[in-house]
């Protein structure tokens, strides 16, 4: 059986959580491979909405095992809160159903304090981080001075390593940023408690996933954020600190390319992003309010992690083609088609213009998109409510034409379409 991978094609928030939930019905292991609790995946089951930041979305299915790979960074406080929330909702979460990589890195109060201090000093050049400590923990990882979960397995040395870590953070907080220092002993004692609780969950995830694939078990790789937030291939420097693309699934789980099967890219029927950075197709005013929603509904465009209103715009076909290329996508899942119902005209970006030249594909990586002006194609909208459609034949012709045009631009087939937040509100093509 293969490793199927689900990737966001935009700046995150594409609805990957509900697609992972759908695809988990066919998988025994759902494996998160990057990011930390700066990510937010929302899954709606009946009247219950689950907002997850660390635990793989597939855990809601009773037959699955959730895995968090070495590419993930783990905030123990967030993890504990999520597990308690899931248990209260009747979802069984225990060491037999949730596995944490021994090589995943710990997020500490020191990382969060550094994140906020660093962002504050950037002034007008702020990246728009979530303040969850994600950048600093990945920095430590690259500097080979981080704390991995395997450190928690050694009761004798872990406390002292946490003290030393916090003292090193304090040096930076005080000398570089003029911030207040943290209490090393208090934090170390708190993390002693987390270590005792987390030890049964910690294992060699690479070996676990490899043995499962070799034994014929289908594994679903769950990505966090989106392609355009990738550290290497995104809109740098307005990116996250991990590898959000399909290649990150292999690195972040510790498995080889021979196992990869489907690579599904999730895209909204329009475009959104949270935080700073370029956004060629962004719209404002009444159009933005229409696409974003008021915030009264869980599915309106407000950040799952931050609560910030998302920036919104028309679907960018140039960036979608880029995501297809970078990830080697085999298919697309399109979400939120229902939100476009009632619009008279839709706009689809089919190219960029700059200095008198027209571009179908990016001439360089998407780091600086400010020099490009989007070229739009107008398509007729539809007035019908599509939220009850369960077959492609039930969609209006204008909706079908919109989907087909996206397929043409992406040169990739759309395999499923979401027409609402519920599990059953989906059309398989």
In whole angstroms, how far apart are the ends?
A: 23 Å
**Number of E strands:** 19
Oligomeric category: single chain
Number of domains: 2
Output the CATH topology of the largest domain.
Adenylosuccinate Synthetase, Chain A, domain 3
Mean pLDDT: 93
Widest sheet: strand ordering:
9-7-5-2-10-1-11-14-18-19
Sheet bearing the most strands, described?
A: 10 strands, mixed
Low-confidence runs: none
Determine the structural class based on helices, strands and strand pairing: alpha/beta
Task: Give the C-alpha Rg.
Answer: 22 Å
Quote the beta fraction. 15-25%
Could you estimate the helical fraction of the residues in percent?
25-40%
CATH domain class name of the largest domain: Alpha Beta
Order of helices and strands: EHEEEEEHEEHHHHEHEHEEHEHEEEEHEE
CATH superfamily of the largest domain: Adenylosuccinate Synthetase, subunit A, domain 3
* Spatial shape: globular
What would CATH call the architecture of the largest domain? Answer: Alpha-Beta Complex
The number of helical runs is 11
